[in-house]
Amino acid sequence: MNIFKKLTFWFVLFSLLVCFNNLSGNDDKNILIYLTNPFNPFLNKWLTGINTNPETAYLFQPLIYGLHLLFWTGLGLIIDKLIKKDKNKKHTGR
């Protein structure tokens, strides 16, 4: 299957663009990353603790980027699998 037809590719590309936008300094308050990852509100207290602690602040950006990329990759894989399952079901007539 063509990689451009998979949602995983587009979701990962979206996630990387958001991360690079943040890394470039355009989103220095992490608002775009916060709003585009549904898990961040649940992890807000923990992530804030990491970011405000001088001993662990260096872990914040790689962690937030990794969580963002992991979420969008996982969501893309799940949706692609559901689409493939639905197409197989329609193709076999079940």
Integer tally of domains: 1
Mean pLDDT, as a whole number?
A: 91
The computed structural class is mainly alpha
Form type: elongated
Instruction: Please estimate the helix content.
Output: over 70%
Transmembrane segments: 63-83
Keywords: Membrane, Transmembrane, Transmembrane helix
What does this structure look like?
The longest helix is centred in the C-terminal third of the chain and has 33 residues, at 60-92. The chain has helices at residues 7-23, 31-35, 40-52, 60-92. With 94 residues, it is an all-alpha fold. It is elongated. The protein has one domain (3-92).
Defining key terms:
single chain, 94 residues, mainly alpha, 0% strand
What is the secondary structure topology, with strand pairs?
Layout: H1 7-23, H2 31-35, H3 40-52, H4 60-92
Helix pairs in contact: 1-4
Structure, briefly:
By secondary structure, the chain is mainly α. It is 72% helix and 0% strand.
